Amino acid sequence: MAIISTEAIVLRSIDHRETSKLAFFFTRSHGRVIGVLKGIRKDSRKFHTSLDKLTVNDIVFYQYRNSDIHLVSHCDMKEYFPGVRQDMKRITAGEYACELVNKIMPLEEKNEKVYELLLNYCHALGRVRDIGRLVHMFQIKVLSLSGFQPHIDSCVQCGGDVRARAKFSTFKGGLVCPRCQRQGMALMAVSPGAVASVLYVGQHSWDQCLKLVLTPGVKRELKQILNNFLIYHLEKNIKSGKYLD
Ligand SMILES: [Zn+2]
Q1: Partner of 11 for a Cys bridge, out of 18, 102, 188, 226, CB 3.0 to 4.6 A?
Q2: What is the reported pLDDT for 242?
Q3: pLDDT-based confidence at residue 236 (cuts at 50, 70, 90)
Q4: Ligand 1 mean position to 134 CA, how many Å?
């Protein structure tokens, strides 16, 4: 057993037994971690946290080798992001990111880039006007950092050029060039602008991406392609995603 002290973002929390709660954290040092906070519902002063989604906490937990659930001895909230909680759209976009990370990331595998991404997303979500664009940027980045990114820089089938008339196949996970397109394939038309946006976000820093402007048409395409892709490849429907536009 090891005692771990780290920074953690709350993805979800649920009641557990009589007086405890289970918290699903994304931690800086150990990736996704499930912890039990014993007695938190009986004595709210025991921990200095609300365990609200998208709050940053300093936590200490006992990492057991034979269990996925670890005992959390300290959990002190240090960032609450009040701007994220000011309207339903921001709250929903926050919940969506939590749900996506909770489903896409494996347990207890350190991924500091995803941690930083989630932190940057929390900061931006409280102040940007175009929330839909932010969600798409988050989707593209988290897919690329977790190794699930769609294949769009060449044909997913033959590796050939995809600059003209390529279409997107959710099933194959990428673009299919005109030569490889067959009757009966479920294909979605995708504009060069949408492809360029996905490539740009995958290759540039978060701050550079925040300056990217997406037209309403490209946003519509990204919404359809990314949501279908995530649902299909995670084989799980991201529930809060359907409320986003
Ligand atoms: Zn091809």
Answers
A1: 102
A2: 55
A3: low
A4: 31
Residue 215 Cα to ligand 1 middle (Å): 28
* Measured CA distances, 92 to 24, 127, 212 (Å): 18, 15, 22
69 C-alpha vs ligand 1 centroid, how far in Å? 46
CATH topology of domain 1-80: OB fold (Dihydrolipoamide Acetyltransferase, E2P) (2.40.50)
What's residue 35's pLDDT? 98
Cα 25 to Cα 105: distance, rounded to the nearest angstrom: 11
Distance (Å) from CA 189 to ligand 1 centroid: 15
Render 168-180 in DSSP notation, one character per residue. EETTTTEEE-GGG
Assigned fold of 84-245 = de novo design (two linked rop proteins) (1.20.1440)
Determine the distance separating the centroid of ligand 1 and the alpha carbon of 234, expressed in angstroms.
Answer: 25
- pLDDT confidence of residue 1: 85
